[in-house]
Amino acid sequence: MKFLKNFKILIIFMLLIWTRLSLICADDKPEFSRWNFKMTGEERFRYEYKKDFDFNQSRKDNGSQFYHRFRLGGLASLMDEYLKPKADIFLEGLDTQTGGYQIKAAANQVDDFDLHQAYANLHNILGSDFDIKVGRQELKYGKGRLIAAPVWANRIRAFDGGVLHYQNVGLWADLIYGQDVKYDDDKFNNSRSEEFLTGIYSGYQKHKMAPLVETYFLEMKDIKGRNDIQRYTAGARLQTNIAEGAVLDIEVPYQFGHTGSATVMKKEIKAYAFHADVIKSWEAVQWKPKMMAAYDEASGDKDPNDSVNNTFIPLYQSTHELYGLLDFFRWQNMRNPEVSMTFSPTEKFKFTPQVDFFWLNSKFDSWYNSSGTAVRSKTSGDRGYFVGSELSLRVYYDLNKNIKWESGYAHFFSGEYVKDSGAHDDVDWFYSQMAFKF
Predict the structure, then answer these.
(1) 3-class DSSP state for residue 353?
(2) Does residue 213 form part of some domain?
(3) How far apart are CA 241 and CA 279, in angstroms?
(4) pTM to 2 decimals?
């Protein structure tokens, strides 16, 4: 009942803001201002089959998992005489459920219908180049390597906070404050004031075909009491055409700050990451092939016993696809060359074969999966850097603009690090999902 109480209070609060906005934003010609309303929604079902995800064939832990996600939202926009929005009010609820056959369902992906987004957005405040967006909202920047609202998992990341946005021709900048919303299946989802993200993310692109330059300075702070974290991330991203039909994307962040407290040894943070990819398209060729070659690297800790932590942490990054389909890695203590090729036999149908190779950046640090959990932590004795390779295939088919189907298969070939640190059998995974949007 606490959820219902909080949800009702929030709806009343947003309705009051909505009423106030209609008065604030009305100009000298109120007949030209009007509210437009739109409902949004998504129903998504996914089936997965997992085999030997613990790299051990002797254990009977293979089986299926089922995922269901339902999103329902409502958007109210106050439009001017040119049909441009002056203000927006958006409310969205999210319900996520899972099931399992022969293996345990993913409990961390379950949340009964709860509030996902609820924000007010004012455009061009007092005729300026500034917008302000306040409330519970998704944050997405760049390619999602540091701040993202990934949609692969049932749960989707949201923040309580605000964004002050500046836009003038090709230059833009966001001043960000957000508290990561924590999922709680039994209660109303809330954020913690002790954990927050602040900073500025900016970009410039003269026109759509010109180079895109993004820069950022971000602070992630988590005051846990026992082991406080103050992590600063400064970096830049460049996307530019390097030849006809080829695009280069480079991103380089650096992290500094400290971890620890009075009861835990303080450590200085010194970490880095690097990404580069080249995408080349052949639109005039049959099936319109598009090739991508990419390389990712993120530093790992060189010595767990010294006073410096070299482990790069990708803040609130995207998961899935960026570093292989199996989610065995993220931008943390890793080196990952990747090659993929996408073919489009028709406008509705396409498929992508892909191969990834994975090494640890430092064998004195752990191997981390997409959630940041240590998969293996053999930090002494004989062990190699090479973790393994992943071969995958994804298939997409759009039945229409509202119904999309996709399936995929991935196989992981264990490398020397897996063999040196325990069970080392290969892994298989298959999925198929259908999404309905309205």
Answers:
(1) strand
(2) yes
(3) 10
(4) 0.90
